[in-house]
Specification:
Layout lengths: L1 H15 L7 H25 L1 H8 E8 L3 E3 H6 L8 E4 L3 E4 L5 E11 L8 E11 L5 E10 L26 H25 L1 H8 E8 L6 E2 L1 H4 L19 E7 L5 E11 L5 E12 L5 E11 L3
Parallel strand pairs: 1-7, 8-13
Antiparallel strand pairs: 1-2, 3-5, 4-5, 5-6, 6-7, 8-9, 10-11, 11-12, 12-13
Length: 305
């Protein structure tokens, strides 16, 4: 939580100096600019290569999952510029906060070993985007899962976007700080609930109706009913007698306090002696009652150290 707090306070101070708060038209424009940024990112990757594209579009404080969350820019700074692989992707869902400076995109990606060759890698990505002080979108968090080739190679088509919620003014610095800590407490309570009842029950209780769940080797599940086929009943449940469950996480909250994410690592005990570590990114949306709801959940295994 501390890593994000300083940056959020600077951005909140900038937001407070705006002449007018965000309205519906601003949100529509922000969503369109986010989708355009995502497509430009992919186009640069195809034209100039993976390394150049990611170094151009990753935020200075970005985090990427490899498979756990690590600083993003060093990963691509170390990448061989001559790497011939071609990575392309397109958004199939996107959402922005009412304040217009935080959003996310998700959709299919394809990896080709070289130009002119057929794709050999397929999957879904999730990117959390944050506007910088100069007004440009940059990727703050990037994660994904691999799965089998899709049945169709057709483009994703129109980008799905949840119906805009209530118009909200940017929060004051003090209110944003309070919201960040309140959200952190909610995210932590969710982790504890998943440990008691299992992740499936915790998600069904806390998720939005349009929740998206991503897991390695599987196509995304959309909706509470569909996630049952992707999340085992006892996934994440702490086994009686096993060591205490340990987790670490950080949070990012929009100026408007209606969109946020939590990411980190988690120890999952399969039995009293076997522990599997996973990394997760969970995106939350505040509903009209003021309750935080999970709208996207992605989790990947991390090899034991």
């Amino acid at each position: 939580m501390k890593r994000e707090l300083g940056g959020l306070l600077v951005l909140a101070a900038t937001a407070a100096m705006m002449a007018a708060g965000p309205g519906p038209a601003d949100r529509v424009q922000a969503l369109a600019s986010l989708v355009e940024a995502e497509r430009s990112f992919s186009a640069l990757s195809e034209a100039k290569g993976i390394r150049e594209a990611f170094l151009a579009w990753l935020a200075p404080d970005s985090v990427v999952f490899r498979p756990g969350p690590v600083p993003g820019r060093p990963i691509y700074e170390r990448m061989d510029p001559a790497n011939p692989a071609v990575l392309t992707w397109e958004p199939e869902v996107a959402e922005v906060a009412a304040s217009g400076e935080l959003g996310y995109t998700s959709g299919p990606y394809r990896l080709r070993p070289g130009r002119g060759q057929e794709p050999t890698g397929f999957g879904r990505y999730v990117s959390v985007w944050k506007k910088q002080l100069d007004g440009t979108w940059k990727v703050l968090i990037d994660a994904g899962v691999a799965h089998d080739p899709p049945a169709s190679s057709a483009p994703a088509g129109a980008v799905a976007a949840p119906a805009p919620g209530l118009a909200r003014e940017p929060l004051s610095i003090a209110a944003l700080r309070d919201e960040e800590y309140a959200f952190g407490a909610r995210a932590g309570a969710f982790i504890k609930d998943a440990g008691k009842r299992g992740l499936r029950k915790a998600l069904i209780a806390a998720a939005t109706d349009d929740v998206r769940v991503l897991r390695p080797g599987r196509y995304p599940a959309v909706g509470k009913a569909a996630l049952k086929g992707l999340v085992p009943a006892d996934a994440g449940k702490v086994i009686r007698g096993s060591p205490e469950r340990r987790s670490s996480y950080e949070v990012v909250v929009a100026w408007s306090g209606d969109l946020a994410c939590c990411y980190g690592t988690l120890e999952l005990w399969e039995d009293e002696k076997t522990c599997q570590t996973s990394a997760y990114l969970r995106i939350w949306r505040k509903d009209e009652s003021g309750a935080w709801r999970v709208c996207l959940d992605i989790e990947v295994p991390v090899n034991p150290s």
